UniProtKB/TrEMBL annotation:
Residues annotated as binding FAD: K64, G128, D322
Residues of the Pyridine nucleotide-disulphide oxidoreductase dimerisation domain: 358-464
PANTHER family referenced in this protein's UniProt entry, alphabetically: MERCURIC REDUCTASE, NAD(P)H DEHYDROGENASE (QUINONE)
Cofactor detail note: Binds 1 FAD per subunit.
Residues that hold NAD(+) according to the record: G194, S195, G196, V197, T198, G199, A200, E201, G281
Segments forming domain FAD/NAD(P)-binding: 19-337
NCBIfam families the UniProt entry points to: PRK07845.1
Keyword line: FAD, Flavoprotein, NAD, Nucleotide-binding, Oxidoreductase
Annotated GO MF terms: flavin adenine dinucleotide binding; NAD(P)H dehydrogenase (quinone) activity
Cofactor: FAD
Lineage: superkingdom: Bacteria
Family under the similarity heading: Belongs to the class-I pyridine nucleotide-disulfide oxidoreductase family.
Protein name: Dihydrolipoamide dehydrogenase
Amino acid sequence: MSAVSADETTDPTVRDGHRVVILGGGPGGYEAALVARRLGAQVTVVERHGLGGAAVLTDVVPSKTLIATAEWLTGSEAAPELGVREAGRTDVDLAAVNARVLALAAAQSADIRARLEREGARIVTGDGRLDGPGRVVVRAAEGGETVLDADTVLVAVGATPRTLPTAVPDGERILTWTQLYRLDALPRRLIVVGSGVTGAEFAGAYHALGCDVVLVSSRERVLPGEDEDAAALLEGVFRGRGMQVMSRSRAAGAERTADGVVVTLADGRVVEGSHVLLAVGAVPATAGLGLEEAGVALSPSGHVVVDKVSRTTARGVYAAGDCTGVLPLASVAAQQGRIAMAHALGDAVQPLRLGDVAANIFTSPEIATVGYSERQLREGGVRFVASTLPLARNPRAKMLGMRDGFVKLFAHPEAGVVLGGVVVSPRASELIFPITLAVAHRLTVDDVASAFTIYPSLSGSIAEGARVLHGQVSPGL
Ligand SMILES: Cc1cc2nc3c(=O)[nH]c(=O)nc-3n(C[C@H](O)[C@H](O)[C@H](O)COP(=O)(O)OP(=O)(O)OC[C@H]3O[C@@H](n4cnc5c(N)ncnc54)[C@H](O)[C@@H]3O)c2cc1C
Ligand SMILES: NC(=O)c1ccc[n+]([C@@H]2O[C@H](COP(=O)([O-])OP(=O)(O)OC[C@H]3O[C@@H](n4cnc5c(N)ncnc54)[C@H](O)[C@@H]3O)[C@@H](O)[C@H]2O)c1
């Protein structure tokens, strides 16, 4: 066993010898490491797999890279309307797609490692756990332990796919999203269990790649929790493309058959396919880390309890990212990590503001949201005015042959301040930004309406939506 302490460092940039140990090298961990280095701390990142975490190696980067191929294929849907004749069959080489996905993920992970090393962070490979609030013990895969003493510990260990005891992934036919990239041929019929964001993204992508897809949704409609109009639109698009969407259908289990899989539903129905993807949520990777023993409170779901500056219940121990369950997005994980380091190292701190977070569902069309949702406004009893402009009325969308989508804005009925918005459209992830700026900087609908937009452009619908709201806002009501 070897022990490392701040006294051993000869790094001249370490101003105060403050020792930060970060458990987990995903966005929560590596963004925190960069901030801590900038603030002069001695930083060690403990990572058992690869830098970039699940976000880079199995979740965000691989899924969005796969979706890039799917998007290219869906882009041709409007071809006949635009006067383009199909010259022949388009085939997807899934082995090539997955090789590209994995190469891109590996390269990004290597970039993050190089950046951290360049910035002077130390990277220790192995399984870390807390031994009290100020000490981390790392066990290397090849054996041997390293003890790291710390003034501040950041727990950013992420989450892993939830599975069902009656549907045990085998990596071949019964799969979690982390195992999909091993496939070298398109599944004949893919059953996606779970219609949250993960299920919807993969169901849409694999359908676009050419698979027969069945989406098993335990709820009334896909994407529960998202804007209802957006979810209904997407479900309609999925069905219109020929995807089988099974509503109110809870999977009880999945088993392999001679040449595929069978999923049994809770009501006894069975669904046959060649492969099944479990997209039934994630569990925080907090078990067995010595957290509670170190005084770190966990919620009943196993998430680390944190406040708005990422403090846990143990002094000197912070947590960020999916292991906190605050909002499982890479952007939020990164922000929580940065905030934690700023707080621990005495820099200016802005507590986490979830109301400003922008999110995007990478389906076709995409669904981007920011600020308050319509449900939050209604359930919170907040008075608001709303405008919804269908994309089909936008001149640029007409030229591009786009029909499915809309721009929705919410504003305060007196102050006119933009409270939130939803964009459903191709590349909604890019189009949401003006609304994000409006929400973040408390702009009014008149501020948005008075800015120039390109004619013709999809963003014209955002300004037009704001102009519609101008007529509904009554100052001094
Ligand atoms: C399919 C899918 C697609 C997604 N797409 C998006 C998207 O498009 N945009 C978006 O914003 N979010 C997306 N997300 C969410 C995003 O992946 C997470 O919010 C993000 O990964 C959280 O970052 P993190 O740092 O908390 O954890 P992670 O990225 O999970 O990193 C945690 C790291 O900690 C390591 N670790 C765990 N335990 C230990 C230990 N004991 N010792 C050492 N190391 C340990 C793990 O190996 C891992 O590398 C997606 C999620 C999924 C499932
Ligand atoms: N584009 C993105 O930013 C992106 C992409 C993927 C995930 N994420 C993040 O990850 C979070 C989690 O999303 P998720 O979709 O992985 O999980 P989730 O928990 O949101 O959705 C899982 C769904 O599976 C359903 N389900 C559970 N058991 C089932 C069963 N036995 N049969 C049928 N359905 C069942 C649940 O009712 C739920 O609707 C999201 O809220 C998001 O923050 C983000």
